[in-house]
């Protein structure tokens, strides 16, 4: 089959016909959930300087700092052109994107980062552990989902930030909040969005799903750091100022694309807390 395709492409070129080119940075990653994740939705203003430019099943946020733009997450590789089109539909120029903040080194949130960085000149920002995965385009050796395999376009240059560090641009300060568990390099991001003197704390929360490939055990020695990471993240989500919650996967936070419900971040943590407790109990029962 490969030889036949190669022959076809050679003959097409020899005959003068244009040979279609494939952009390696936006080559689609197709899974059973890709269509659901990339369900088209209109770009939307949330409040003040904060917008959504992503999809029905994957959140991508845009922040207008008054002196440049910031994106949060990049969805799948094939999503990059649609993200930039949504930025334009809101009246912004993608070339004004200075930074792209990453929540985690998984293909569904980081797959589009390389293309977005190339096409905008923006700097990708992540935790130190997250940056390791972004630079390789592969899951970390200790990732609970390692057994799924797969890869995504690597990001050549990544700036790292630590827990509690602030990224300042224009009139906005964005704080990095380490939220390990789903991956050890997961990072959430929070900032103040203001409109006419009213300000709201926006939290873009990384995934907190305690999911893994078959055969992985959170009750194993390898899983203990992840359980501790989840517990750290729950404490932070319980305490963080959170007027508006954007979840990396919107359906993990309830109905709609974001939540303004009181206690939304605590509820987000509670959902994961219950799921992790159920998972740990099931593993212990299997071992009895």
Can you tag this structure with a few keywords?
alpha/beta; 31% helix; 7-stranded mixed β-sheet; 12 strands; 5-stranded mixed β-sheet; disordered N terminus; 288 residues
Structure report:
Helix content is 31%, strand content 20%. The protein has eight helices and twelve strands. The chain is an alpha/beta fold. The chain is globular. The N and C termini lie far apart (50 Å).
> Roughly how many Å is the radius of gyration?
20 Å
Mean pLDDT comes to 94
Shape: globular
Share of helix, binned: 25-40%
Q: Would you list the SSEs in sequence order as H and E?
A: HHEEEEHEHHEHEEEEEHEH
| Percentage of residues in DSSP E strands | 15-25%
Query: How many H/I helical runs?
Result: 8
Q: What characterizes the major β-sheet?
A: 7 strands, mixed
Model regions low in confidence, pLDDT < 50 over at least 5 residues: 1-14
Spatial sequence of strands, sheet with the most strands: 1-2-3-4-5-6-7
| Secondary-structure-derived class | alpha/beta
Distance between the termini: 50 Å
Number of beta-strand segments: 12
